[in-house]
Amino acid sequence: MPMIRRGAQVPARWLLLACGILAIVIPSRPAGAADDGIVDVHTLPRLDGAVEDTSRPDTYRVIYTVPTPLAATSDATRKLLSADGWVPYVYPLDERSAALTFKKGRQGLRVSFTQARGRPDQSAVFYTPNRIYANVPFPEGAIDLVFDETRPYLSCIAPGALDATAAFFTKDMAAMGWRKLNPETALRWPNADLAGTVPNGVRVFYDHPDRDATHVYQKPVMLTLTRRDDGRTNVEIRVAPFALPEVLEADDDMAGLPRPKPTKSARGLGSASSNKREISAAAIAELPAVRAFYQRELAARGWQEDGSAPLAPGDEVAIKISNSDETGVLRLGRKYDFTMVSLTAQVKESALAARAKAKKEADARFLSDALGTAQQLIAADDIRRKTQAASLSDAPLTALADGKTPVPLPENAEAVTFEGGDGHLEFSSASSVKALSSFYRTALKSSGWKEQPSVINQPNMAVMAFSKGGKSISMTVMQMGPKVNVRADGSGLVTEAAKAAAGAEVEVQAKSAEPLKPDPESPLPVPTQRSLKSLATTKIPGGEAPLRRELEARIPASLDEVLAFYRAELAKLGWQEKTDGAAASAERAQIEFTSPQGPAVLKLGRAKGETTVSLAQKNADAAAKAEIMPKAGQARLMLGNMAANEVALTINKQTVKIAAGAGGPQSPKGPMLDLPPGKYVYALRLPGRPARSESLTVAAGEAWGLLVGPSGDVLPLQMY
Questions:
Q1: Are 593 and 578 within 8 A, CB to CB?
Q2: Core-most of 116, 200, 625, 681, by most CB within 10 Å?
Q3: In this structure, what are the phi and psi dihedrals at residue 98, rounded to the nearest 5 degrees?
Q4: In this structure, are strands 610-618 and 143-148 parallel, antiparallel, or unpaired?
């Protein structure tokens, strides 16, 4: 027969002839012809009281509801369809599935159930066709049917004796297009061994030379029948071993461990850097092929075999393995037609110690570098502040004429912000802390205000508190760069007109706010509609898990909307709201929660037409591990000293000496104190300097750190 060279042009009449031959040889399904492999689910029987859901008509699915709970509905459906000739079965490794699967001839059916919306006493039933790609016969009356219509796989107990069951399969396998293999028909599989025998049973191999109605190629199968002591017969049909791959390819790693291909299912725990990791899989291959795969892949990764390990239930092989840092066990067994794989790896104690040491050294280097940088910045900032302070004026101040605030403003006040509804005043000035403090002490005293004693009265910062007629004002004067910032808060600054305007603003805000949507990227819930967001975490040096997380945000919505948003979002995370101690009003709210990690608190307020959010969550496990968990009903205070010399700190009538470097990179754990909740004045004494006093307020269940900086400043930080 003449051949046509590749790339040569073919006469058009040849193409027409070829197309005509193909049209004759390849028949097509007539338009509208029924698919015999797909059951018409609309013709199937339904339970009594069924009400069909016709809201979304579907040719290949039926949904109906019945007035019975799920368990009763499932049992009744199984009995109903079994009476109609449908045979129930389960999938390998999926024996506990809530869905039901059935086979009737060459048609399959899947039935699933859900609770009717909002009605636990009602159930929704779903009928869906399930194509049988690899059909094999089910013996009538068989029990414990396990079947996978894609490979195929069948396991069951036939009610008849061995000979009768063998005769049944001989007849029905042939009727379905399966052909018994013999040495001649098995030539295409060089490794096929058809001569094997089965104790107390028979084994027959089949192939499917003609594609069935599904037009899917079927691999040869192995039928094994075994006589049981009770006279019945065990049946298993699975893909013939010689038709499975002998050399397995590697799939993507799981938990940093090799996984063979193909698998029916696989699961990994941990990662390549975890101290303990494992993988389990159901490989569609024979055990020798899977073992060879792991011998090859593990050796390529530096693992070696160290002999046999004790066999666990289901194991056929258990091998100890190890590399320079880890030990592990590889376990292989058989279930159904799968080779079950379990591979675990555990970091050696010596490697764990080395990793911990390396991490500690890395943390120490990081903290040392950070401390050195901080010391440089603090020194530079100290010089800068002194230079800037020298430029500030100590000259006496006079009040600004025609002031519209409840307290006078100095004549050089800049960037004034006054919120009469919230009782807040803030401005900056080119005068010194000393000059501004003297101005307000004199001005307020002359207006009848009485000053409360304060322990903070430094050249760069002063805190003052005044009271009169049941009202109060708290004022902080602090040097901020080349200017001094003055901030005042309190009921003495609230004006009635501003309160009325603020109330009207709240009402308008509540009406105009849009539905709040959660930000999917935020570790703690926060709406996407926000003007400000900050997230802070607190960790112990060298620790991995945060001791405390705090989210602060400003949201342009009413307080009620924000409160409803957080109640809904935190409930989704498993947070439980505590009813005792909850307080909510139009202007502020505070609610305590119990989260999976530990206690948490949500605080909401109003400022500048927005709702302010403070959401703090504590990690009880991390605090206990770090040994900073406060005693019940008390607060814990941790002390640290970054100064070059020992310092002494007095608080609650206790004086504690803090060695240089305590609570730092080289000595992470400094002294600790347990205190009852309350406000405390503490005094710090450094060699050659006068004592410095400041205050700290602690609550029950809190842990605070007081860190003395290189220049003698004290940094308070809530750790838990």
A1: yes
A2: 116
A3: -75, -20
A4: unpaired
